[in-house]
């Protein structure tokens, strides 16, 4: 499910901040790894300092991502509050962003309605279309003959999309939270590596210049 579609279901745009910080830390970590490989071939105090700076930057980004993810994980219910409003605006057209988002969500997450298929009975689209069927995206993919009619409810997805969205979002947040310790372990290993390189580097000898 694309971000442009799923973003319609969230109350605030800052809900994506944990993912942004996590991706940023991953990019910086890759750059740091490349720099570390270069350091093994080139002895440079300046590059070693840059390497340590990038490691500190990764630590800050990952810590921020983990803290934000933990904070967001306690507010998932309130963040997905606009879900019913998006379903109410369903028009049945693929050109409509709300309708396309609803159809894509129901098909990909294998869900129907907010809590179940009965939520469609209260929508304006259901009343306009005669009140006999729900969107085709509610059809269970195992039943090829399903056309969304309510006289065969066993052919529809039984779970609501709110629960499925919460499960997906909680999984992403948990991945960010529990991925942070792994990144920290990698950083410690890199810190020890650069410390060993700096120990093996010969100290520069300074001499007092005599007066002419």
Low-confidence stretches: none
Q: Tell me, what's the shape?
A: elongated
Q: What order do the helices and strands follow?
A: HHHHHHHH
User: What is the count of helical runs?
Assistant: 8
The number of distinct β-strands equals 0
Helix/strand structural class: mainly alpha
Distance between the termini: 76 Å
Q: What is the overall pLDDT average?
A: 79
Write down the Rg.
Answer: 27 Å
> Which range does the strand content fall in?
under 5%
User: Into which percent range does the helicity of residues fall?
Assistant: 55-70%
Largest sheet composition: none
Structural features, described:
There is one protein chain. Helix content is 58%, strand content 0%. The chain is mostly helical and 212 residues long. The longest helix is centred in the last third of the chain and has 40 residues. The mean pLDDT is 79. The relative contact order is 0.15. The chain is elongated and about 80 Å long.
Short description:
This protein has 212 residues and is an all-alpha fold.
Jot down its keywords.
58% helix, 8 helices, 212 residues
Fold blueprint:
Elements: H1 3-6, H2 17-39, H3 45-73, H4 76-79, H5 83-88, H6 97-109, H7 124-128, H8 161-200
């Amino acid at each position: 499910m694309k971000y442009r579609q799923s973003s319609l279901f969230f109350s605030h745009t800052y809900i994506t901040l944990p993912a942004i910080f996590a991706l940023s830390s991953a990019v910086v970590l890759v750059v740091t790894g490349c720099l570390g490989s270069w350091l093994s071939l080139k002895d440079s105090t300046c590059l070693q300092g840059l390497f340590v700076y990038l490691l500190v930057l990764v630590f800050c980004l990952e810590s921020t991502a983990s803290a934000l993810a933990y904070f967001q994980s306690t507010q998932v219910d309130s963040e997905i509050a606009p879900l019913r409003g998006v379903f109410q605006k369903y028009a049945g057209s693929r050109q409509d962003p709300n309708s396309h988002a609803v159809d894509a969500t129901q098909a990909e997450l294998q869900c129907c309605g907010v809590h179940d298929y009965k939520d469609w009975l209260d929508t304006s689209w259901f009343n306009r279309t005669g009140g006999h069927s729900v969107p085709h995206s509610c059809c269970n993919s195992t039943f090829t003959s399903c056309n969304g009619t309510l006289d065969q409810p066993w052919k529809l997805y039984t779970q609501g999309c709110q629960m499925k969205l919460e499960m997906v979002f909680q999984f992403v947040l948990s991945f960010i939270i529990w991925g942070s310790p792994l990144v920290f372990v990698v950083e410690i290993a890199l810190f020890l590596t650069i410390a060993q390189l700096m120990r093996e580097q010969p100290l520069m000898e300074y001499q007092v210049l005599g007066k002419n």
